[in-house]
Amino acid sequence: MKEIRLIYFGFGKSNTYLALKKYLYSSSxxxxxxxxxxxxxxxxxxxxxxxxxxxxxxxxxxxxxEADYAFVPFANDDCGLVPQVRDLLLNEExxxxxxxxxxxxxxxxxxxxxxxxxIKGYDIESVYGNLPTLRQCSMFINESIPFAAxxxxxxxxxxxxxxxxxxxxKSLALGNAxxxxxxxxIRFQDESASNYGQTNTRFFLIGRRKQLEKDCIKxxxxxxxxxxxxxxxxxYLSTPSPHSQLSNTPAxxxxxxxxxxxxxxxxxxxxxxxxxxxxxxxxxxxxxxKGNTIYFYxxxxxxxxxxxxxxxxxxxxEIDDFLSRHILNGYYYGYDNNKCGAIRFIKISSEExxxxxxxx
Length: 360
Fold this sequence. Notes:
Blueprint: E1 2-9, H1 15-27, E2 32-35, E3 39-41, E4 45-52, H2 55-63, E5 69-76, E6 80-81, H3 83-89, E7 96-106, E8 109-113, E9 126-129, H4 131-136, H5 138-144, E10 149-152, H6 156-165, E11 171-175, E12 185-187, E13 199-208, H7 222-230, E14 232-240, E15 252-261, E16 264-272, E17 276-290, E18 293-302, E19 311-318, H8 319-325, E20 327-334, E21 340-348, H9 350-356
Parallel strand pairs: 1-4, 1-5, 9-10, 9-11
Antiparallel strand pairs: 2-3, 3-4, 5-6, 5-13, 7-13, 8-11, 8-12, 14-15, 14-21, 15-16, 16-17, 17-18, 18-19, 19-20, 20-21
């Protein structure tokens, strides 16, 4: 029986844990929960669970080889990406690879301590939940408990635990609690607190990245060889400059495919969120080599008018560094909106690329 150490976001019976439980059951008909929040088994695997209250704990678990995999929420159909997960996937200290994706429906409810039964919404002073949950229930908060201050916790479990232990507070927690786990809590409203009744969330199973084989060039026709080596699949992260006209917009996280198109290279960019879809494509590209440095320029335009703008990307890398690390760094500039900033391409395998788009 193979031992696997799997860290999940949150702790206790968080929304991520409930989704992980469904994922494990869907992966194996013989999977059993041996000890809630701690251990699952089937005939082939013994999966030891570890709670990670935040992405820093998950990153450290990989850094110090305390976990083999992590199960984290990446995006939902309500309020988009989880930025901390995006940053974890592209951190430089611990290269992270996507191994699988899973979609789950989450229904969130509002809970109060039973000592506060009958309390009116306008008397609720605080509402507890993690950041994604507070966003996913923003309509409920604004309409039903308009004077409540939002208090962020690491997970819905921590939020429910808190109000269970503080009956004197006029507070409310968002989550999905069972009567057996929280006998002191009751629902504030029977209806879902989620903005649209439920939230469809996409989860990622991630682990340490398998290093791509080091490339080499024969120097016979260096530019053509470099073009061939640049072809492939990449993760793309762009970070707006503080001087950008739209610097308050979040960083972009995308997939990019580079392939040969005659003597040039063509690129296709795809958005990565709850669903993946074509976003933009190159209209021209140029490769230049000066000494040991690759310079790669391309202009792009949107596939859909409302989702992107026209612009230019300037990338470069030392040849030896690219052959070993497969990373390109540079800058971008949007013609239509004067948005600019830093950009990074990280090459991934074709297998990992297909994992990202399998739910499309």
